[in-house]
Write a structure and sequence with these properties.
This protein is about 80% helix and about 0% strand. By secondary structure, it is mainly α.
Length: about 150
C-alpha cells in the first residue's frame, strides 16, 4: 500500500498530466481557429469539445489533489511538493477564469460596447490563466524529470 506522500505525489503527477493536456488541447483548438479555412467547422467543434473534456479532467485532478490531506503540510520541504501546490493554484485560477468566460458568453442577449469589452477582458484573463497553468506545469515537470 502506498504511503501518504506517494499517494500525494501520484495525485500531483496526475494533475500535471491533466494540466499539460489541457494546455495542449486549447492550443490545438486555437491553432485551428487562427488558420482560417484550414480546419472545417466540424473539426473546430470537435477540437473545442476535446478542449472542454480536458478542462473537466483538469478539474477532477485538481479536486483529487485538493482533497489529499497532506497537500497542505507546510513542513514538507521537497521541491516537487512546492511546485505541485503552485500547479494546484494555477489550475484553480484557470478553472475559475474558464467558468467565468463560459458564464459570460452564455448570457449573450443584447451586446453593448461595455459588455463586449468585459467579455474581451474575461477571455484575455482566461488566456493568461492558461499560460500560467502551462508555466506551473513546466515548473512541476522540472522537479519531476522522470515523468513521461
Amino acid at each position: 500500500m502506498p504511503n501518504k506522500s506517494g499517494s500525494l505525489k501520484d495525485k500531483a503527477d496526475a494533475l500535471y498530466r491533466a494540466a499539460a493536456e489541457c494546455h495542449r488541447r486549447h492550443t490545438s483548438y486555437s491553432s485551428l481557429v487562427d488558420k482560417e479555412g484550414e480546419g472545417s467547422d466540424e473539426e473546430q467543434r470537435e477540437a473545442l469539445e476535446m478542449a472542454f473534456i480536458s478542462d473537466d479532467v483538469l478539474a477532477t485532478a485538481m479536486t483529487a489533489y485538493e482533497s489529499a490531506k497532506d497537500h497542505v503540510d507546510g513542513g514538507n520541504s521537497e521541491e516537487w511538493w512546492h511546485k505541485s501546490n503552485m500547479l494546484w493554484h494555477a489550475s484553480k485560477e484557470y478553472i475559475r477564469r474558464h467558468a467565468n468566460c463560459e458564464g459570460m458568453s452564455k448570457r449573450l442577449g443584447r451586446q453593448s460596447r461595455t459588455r463586449l469589452a468585459e467579455l474581451t477582458l474575461s477571455f484575455d484573463l482566461e488566456a493568461s490563466a492558461l499560460l500560467a497553468l502551462r508555466m506551473a506545469a513546466d515548473s512541476y515537470r522540472s522537479a519531476r524529470p522522470e515523468l513521461e
